[in-house]
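Session log. Operator J.P. requested a structure for one protein chain; no other inputs attached. Running the standard single-chain path with token output.
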Amino acid sequence: MDVFYIYMSKLAYIMKKLFVLVLFICSFANGQDIRELYKEKFNDDWKVYEDQDYVKKYIDTTIVYKLESGRSPEEELLFQAKENHKKRAEKLSQIFSSLKVNLKEFDSLVFIEQRSTNLNLEYDFVKKGAIITKDSIYGFKYDLEKENNGIENYNYFGNAENETLSQAKLIIGNLILSAKTNYLDSLAKVESEMLQGPLQNLRPETEFEILVYNKNKNELRRIYLHETFVRIINQK
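Structure written below.
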């Protein structure tokens, strides 16, 4: 009986440990913050620079030399890609934190950030956007030129620089609120094909980065759109 009791006690202890471990793994899978999830889902942003054939598109790899950093040009590309990926994930975390939006509390949400593609204008450094949940819209903006580039509350859908941007934001917002985010994928695909084909001379001035989150699918999709999709629609 003593041996049986000791055996059962040890078994109970092991089962308890396994239960805690499983609970931890499950909570981690379902409780990642936006920073962790972004880094996990889009690590190809930097991993692609581990491919020498891809790197050759950007630099001449036959010339061997070191930069001031002590890294080769190929190593520098990979390093900077990793750094930019990490900084982007951190900025997303700062936005969510500033707006008091906790990813773990939502089954789904959509994040939008609008930025200019024209690097010559002053307002190009101002990023703006919104987080859209089932019940609320949290608008924000921040200025990269400001020392602390602090994140401020902003009426994103109530403000626009011009009619085209107003129309673009209205279409994007309505598709999200009506749970038709798949249409955003379709719009992005058509826009990309048109800009590489018959409308290749049409230069986008504004880019929208859209992140579609679904907890049940452990999904974070990224969609890039430009204000040109409105011009394409209006031309048809």
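Operator note: The first helix runs from residue 2 to 30.
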